[in-house]
Amino acid sequence: MTSHKKPVRKRALAIMLAAMMVVTLLPAAAGAKPSKKDSSPSCDSRVNNTIDKLLECVTVEGVREHQAAFQAHADANGGIRTSGTPGYDASVAYVADRMEAAGYDVTVQPFDFTTFIITGPSTLEQVAPGSVTYVEETDYTLMSQTDAGDATGSVTGVDLALGDPGTSTSGCEAADFAGFPAGDIALMQRGACAFGLKADNAAAAGAVGAIIFNQGNTPEREGLINGTLGADYAGGIPVVFATFPRGVEWAATSGLEMRIAADVFRGEATTFNVIAETPKGDPDNVIMVGAHLDSVNQGPGIQDNGSGSAAILEVAEQMAKVKPVNKVRFAWWGAEESGLIGSEHYVAELSEEELDQIALYLNFDMIGSPNYFFGIYDGDDSDAVGAGPGPEGSAQIEKTFEAYFNMVGEPFQGTDFSGRSDYGPFIEVGIPAGGLFTGAEGIKTPEEVLLYGGTAGIQYDPCYHLACDTFDNISLHALDVNSDAVAFATLNYAMSTELINDGRSKGNFKPWKVAS
Tens of pLDDT along 163-184? Predict the structure, then answer.
C-alpha cells in the first residue's frame, strides 16, 4: 500500500513563525465579550501587588478574549491547533506577542518531535459477510500515532479474554500471535500493556492492520478513548480503537473481513514552547506556571487546553507591573497531546543548577469543563486517589489552593497526579508541583452533583478531544473561579516561598495567610 504524505518542513515552519512574530494577531472570534479591564482604567495603570487588586483585575472576560483568539487561529487553519500545524504556530505567535508587549522576557523554544496529523477521513467497514460501514467517534476512532494505510483482510482474534476481560493480555507477547495468518487484520483487546506494543507485535506477525477494542472489565472501559500508540510506534500499519461491544461482535462473526483506511501524516516536525519570565525577582528562586497550548487533531482545543493557556496569559498580563520577590516564569507547552513532549524537552535541557533554581511548578490543564468538579492536585496523597504524593513541597501547594477555595466558599476535592499532564516531567526531577483540573473523559458522580451541580452519569467534558471543543464548550463559573485561583497562587508564591523552601517573604505575604 502507498501512502501520500506531505512532509512538514522544519525550516519552512521556523521561517513562517518568525514572520508571524512581527505581526500583532488580534482575537477575531465572533461572540467574544469585551474585557472588564478595558473599561477599568485602574487595571491598566496600577500595580496589582496585592491579592485583592489582582483578583479584581483578572476577569473571566479577559480570559475569554484569549480563548477567542485561539478559536480564530483554529478557524483560519482547518479547525485545529495541533503542534506542527499553522494553527498552533499562530497561537504561539499570539502568546509571545502579548507577553512581549506586557514587558516579559520571552523565549520561543523550538524542538523536534514526531507529529501526527489527520489529513482526511478514516474508514472502518465490514466487507464480508455482508457490508457494514462503522461510524467514527461512535464505533471506533483512529489511534493517535497510527501510520497511514488502506488495508483489507480477514480478521483474526488474538488471545482475547471475553469471558473474563480483567485478565486480558491480548497482543502483549509475540507468542500471542503463534499461527497468526500473515495478511490478516489483528483483533486485540485492551489490557496489561501499551497499545503501541500490541500494534508492533501484530505488525511483526504479518498483520496488515489492527483493531484494538476496549477491555470491558468495568463500565468505564467499554466505550471509546483517544488512545495513542506513542511516538516510538514502528509497526507501519493502520490501527484503530473500538468499543468493547463492537469487539465482542466481531470476535463472534465467522468469516469476517474488514477494511481499515487511515489518511494521516506522521513524521518529523518542529514545534515550539513559549517561555516568558519577569525581568525582576530572585533568579535563584523561580516560580513556574504552565499550561499546554496545543490541541488534538480532532478540534480547536479551546477548553483542552485553551482554558489553562488563556488563564495564565490573563494572570501574567495583570501581573506585568508587579515587582516580585521571586522570578516568575510562565510557560506554554507544545506537543503535550503527543505525550508531554514540550515540557519533557524543556526540563531535559536544563542544567542541574537551573533545575535547582526552580522552587515549584504550577500546572493548569482543563480548568473550565462544562460538567466540572473543582479538582486540586493531591500533593500529600491525603485523598488516597492512587498515584501517591508529589515531591516535598507539593502538599503545601495543595494547601494554598485549598485556602483560596475556602476563602471564596467553593467546594473542592483532590485529584490524582496521574501523569497525564505537564507536571509529570517536573515531578520526575523532584520539583514540587500542584495545580487545578476540572475533569476530562471521567464520569460525574451523583455525589459530585450535590457539590457542584451539573449532570451525573456523563463526562466532565463531553467534548473532550472532539471537534465540539470550541469557544462555547465551557463553564464560565468554573473558568472564573479557577482563573482567580491561578492568580491567587501565582502572586502568593511570587512574593513568598517560605512554605516551600524557607524563601524570604514580602511583608504583606506571610505564610499564615495560605497555610490552612
Answer: 999 999 999 999 999 999 999 9
CB of 186 within 8 A of CB of 210? yes
> What average pLDDT does this structure show over 118-130?
93
Q: Which residues pair with 213 in a beta bridge?
A: 189, 242
Asked whether the bond before 129 is cis by omega within 30 degrees of 0, the reply is yes
In whole angstroms, give the CA distance from residue 308 to residue 365. 5
Task: List CB contacts of 4: < 8 A, sequence separation 6 or more.
Answer: 148
Give exposure, 126-150, as e/b (b: 16+ Cβ within 10 Å).
beeeeeeebebeebbbbbbbbbbbb
For 223, the grid coordinates are 466505550
Question: Please, what CATH class does the domain formed by 46-116+268-513 belong to?
Answer: alpha beta
The active-site residue out of 317, 336, 337, 344 is 336
pLDDT in tens, 198-222: 999 999 999 999 999 999 999 889 9
Q: How is the beta sheet containing 257-262 ordered, strand by strand?
A: 132-133, 123-128, 257-262, 149-157, 185-189, 209-213, 239-242, 140-142
Radius of gyration of the chain (CA): 24
Distance CA 364, CA 155 (A): 43
Q: Where are the domains of the chain?
A: 46-116+268-513, 122-262
**What is the distance between the alpha carbons of residues 357 and 234, in angstroms, rounded to a whole number?**
38
Pairing mode, if any, of strands 185-189 and 149-157? parallel
**CB count in 10 Å sphere of residue 311:** 31
Q: What is the DSSP secondary-structure string of 269-314?
A: EEEEEEEEE-SSSEEEEEEEEEEE----TTS--TTTTHHHHHHHHH
Which uninterrupted H or E stretch holds 109? strand 105-118
Closest CA to 256 of 394, 434, 134: 134
Contact call for residues 376 and 415 (beta carbons, < 8 A): yes
Q: What is the pLDDT of residues 307-339, one digit of tens each?
A: 999 999 999 999 999 999 999 999 999 999 988
Rounded Cα distance, 256 and 212, in Å: 16
The x, y and z cell numbers of residue 334, run together, are: 507544545
**Alpha-carbon span 458 to 460, nearest angstrom:** 7
Write the DSSP assignment of 130-144 as a string of letters.
Answer: S-EEPPBTTTEEEPB
8 A C-beta contact, residue 184 and residue 207? yes
Q: Is 136 a catalytic residue?
A: no
Q: Do you know the residue count of the chain?
A: 516
Place of cell 490552612: 516
Domain formed by 122-262, architecture = 3-Layer(bba) Sandwich (3.50)
Cβ neighbour number for residue 393 with a 10 Å cutoff: 19
CB atoms within 10 A of CB 201: 25
Would you call 452 exposed, middle or buried from its count of C-beta atoms within 10 A (0-12, 13-18, 19+)?
A: buried
Residue of 231, 269, 228, 266 whose CA lies nearest to 86? 269
- Residue whose entry in the numeric block shows the C-alpha cell 499550561: 291
Q: Which residue has the cell 543548577?
A: 353
Secondary structure (3-state) at 316: helix
Q: What letter would DSSP give residue 441?
A: S
The model scores a pTM over 0.85: no
